[in-house]
């Protein structure tokens, strides 16, 4: 085992399962964040999804503020804020305030998809003209300018400030599942996170494009790529496959646009669509510690990732916490921050 293993981080959706409330889901997210902090994971990001029965993470800045306050070392951020849903000045003010409260620990992951259906996106932004992805580069540049990026000329920063007297700025990371975001991140010299957990077959091609187009910036002198992966670790391969079934059914419901809470394990086992869920193509990492570590190491080797970000999809929080603990131990995260 290397003395300095590749960093691991966590993507958290605050999933709502059958019989669980929003409060239950958010309490589980707090436990995940605190466990990840204790175990030596580098960062935890929370997603932005709207009008979904299985996801309680609708407002990343609110949740980030709470998670940063109840953790000690781990970086906390968004995975991501969907910029088409928000005015750049609003996002800049929110994250400048978070950074002032927790200097050096705030990440602003930015995505160009709405993260929801068009009706919900319109209810969020209210102006149909603001929903076009074509405006994304301009809005992103406005955001960078508001954080003090001296390369940005004109735009909102000529008249506005994200906060009156900033000392540091949040770490801006561009998210994507396509070549568009990869190329834009490279051209702007930003870190890039590829949503491999979406199941896209284009991970390597997008990361190659990111590195080919990378231009050093004041915030980054070389490319830095994070790759996400659905990862569920249990005591054995068989147990991991069993616990993964609720998450498989949730993904099937998303793909077929029949949204539902995450089913319990008992419901999942008896679900009439179980076979269809298990038959779906998947790049998820599911297994015991040795199996999971081998798969993640291969993913890192194939993609050249500088960091891996894992997200576990199952019904119970105890199983998610155990997955993080098993992976941290098997991966070799810093022992001074790992569980005794």
From TrEMBL:
Family (UniProt): To bacterial alkanal monooxygenase alpha and beta chains.
List the InterPro entries hit by this protein, alphabetically. Bact_Lucif_Oxidored (IPR050766), CmoO-like (IPR019949), Luciferase-like_dom (IPR011251), Luciferase-like_sf (IPR036661)
Could you cite one Gene Ontology molecular function of this protein?
A: oxidoreductase activity, acting on paired donors, with incorporation or reduction of molecular oxygen
Which CDD domains does the annotation name? Answer: Flavin_utilizing_monoxygenases
Q: Name one GO cellular component term.
A: cytosol
Keywords on record: Monooxygenase, Oxidoreductase
**What's the protein called, per UniProt?**
Monooxygenase
Please name the Pfam families in this protein's record.
Bac_luciferase
Q: Which organism is it from?
A: Modestobacter italicus (strain DSM 44449 / CECT 9708 / BC 501)
Q: Which residues form the Luciferase-like domain?
A: 14-306
């Amino acid at each position: 085992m290397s003395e300095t293993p590749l960093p691991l981080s966590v993507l958290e959706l605050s999933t709502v399962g059958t019989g669980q409330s929003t409060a239950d889901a958010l309490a589980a997210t707090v436990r995940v964040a605190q466990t990840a902090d204790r175990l030596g994971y580098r960062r935890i990001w929370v997603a932005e999804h709207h009008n979904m029965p299985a996801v309680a993470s609708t407002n990343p800045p609110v949740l980030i503020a709470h998670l940063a306050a109840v953790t000690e070392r781990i970086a906390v951020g968004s995975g991501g804020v969907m910029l088409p849903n928000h005015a750049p000045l609003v996002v800049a003010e929110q994250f400048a305030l978070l950074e002032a409260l927790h200097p050096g620990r705030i990440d602003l992951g930015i995505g160009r998809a709405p993260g929801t259906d068009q009706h919900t996106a319109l209810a969020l932004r209210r102006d149909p003209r603001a929903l076009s992805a074509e405006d994304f580069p301009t809005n992103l540049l406005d955001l960078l300018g508001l954080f003090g990026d001296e390369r940005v000329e004109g735009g909102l920063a000529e008249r506005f400030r994200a906060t009156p007297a900033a000392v540091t700025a949040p770490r801006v990371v561009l998210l994507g599942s396509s070549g568009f975001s990869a190329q834009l991140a490279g051209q702007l010299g930003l870190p890039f996170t590829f949503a491999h957990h979406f199941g896209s077959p284009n991970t390597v091609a997008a990361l190659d494009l990111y590195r080919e187009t990378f231009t050093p910036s004041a915030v980054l002198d070389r490319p830095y790529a994070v790759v996400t992966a659905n990862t569920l670790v249990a005591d054995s391969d068989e147990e991991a496959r069993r616990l993964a079934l609720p998450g498989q059914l949730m993904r099937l419901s998303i793909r077929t646009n029949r949204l539902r809470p995450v089913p319990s394990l008992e419901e999942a086992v008896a679900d009439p669509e179980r076979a269809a869920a298990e038959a779906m193509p998947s790049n998820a990492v599911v297994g015991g510690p040795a199996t999971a570590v081998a798969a993640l190491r291969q993913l890192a080797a194939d993609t050249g990732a500088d960091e891996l970000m894992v997200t576990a999809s199952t019904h119970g929080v105890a199983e998610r916490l155990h997955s993080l603990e098993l992976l941290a131990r098997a991966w070799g995260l810093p022992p001074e921050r790992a569980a005794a």
